[in-house]
Amino acid sequence: AQKITQTQPGMFVQEKEAVTLDCTYDTSDPSYGLFWYKQPSSGEMIFLIYQGSYDQQNATEGRYSLNFQKARKSANLVISASQLGDSAMYFCAMREGRGSGGYQKVTFGTGTKLQVIP
Amino acid sequence: EPEVTQTPSHQVTQMGQEVILRCVPISNHLYFYWYRQILGQKVEFLVSFYNNEISEKSEIFDDQFSVERPDGSNFTLKIRSTKLEDSAMYFCASVGNEQFFGPGTRLTVL
Asked: What's the Cα-to-Cα distance from B94 to each of A2, B57, B75, rounded to whole Å?
């Protein structure tokens, strides 16, 4: 089974509108963390936002917020007031628990390509 | 803001040659990772490194790959005999409360 599922291979959004990128995850570990990264066409991986499984509130970072629904195992990224520079690939990722060797690896979804239309 | 750096940004090599990819993680982080991303595909975990030893590795990380932290700051990934299918973007990451990636090294094997 896929640990991270991103069902939207591509999305379009009008500039200044909000957009939600979907992510569902699968884990039996009670301790995990969820990440969103942005990868522009230049290729670098840019950290956007993090949500821990025990965090009581949804994470927010500027125009980014994470709609964390634990019971549904979803961690959707909401980008408010989209800008042209938001056009990029967006990856959802999960880190499960903490093993003897430190934090467990992060597993990535297949990504959603977001295009912001002027 | 602290950042992870990687060198070189782009490496072109002939099949069968050895390459060393270098990373300088964030100084107070203790956990380090290498990932790779074949063009157009998702990011894949290669190896994690903690306390100067490998803590976990994927099936991709065979005996052609090795990692080390030779001087307490640099963190290197060595591919002993590169294959065409090693062409990819290689990301180093270091972990505190969040995981920060370096900008990546694009490896092209000809």
From this structure: 24, 15, 10
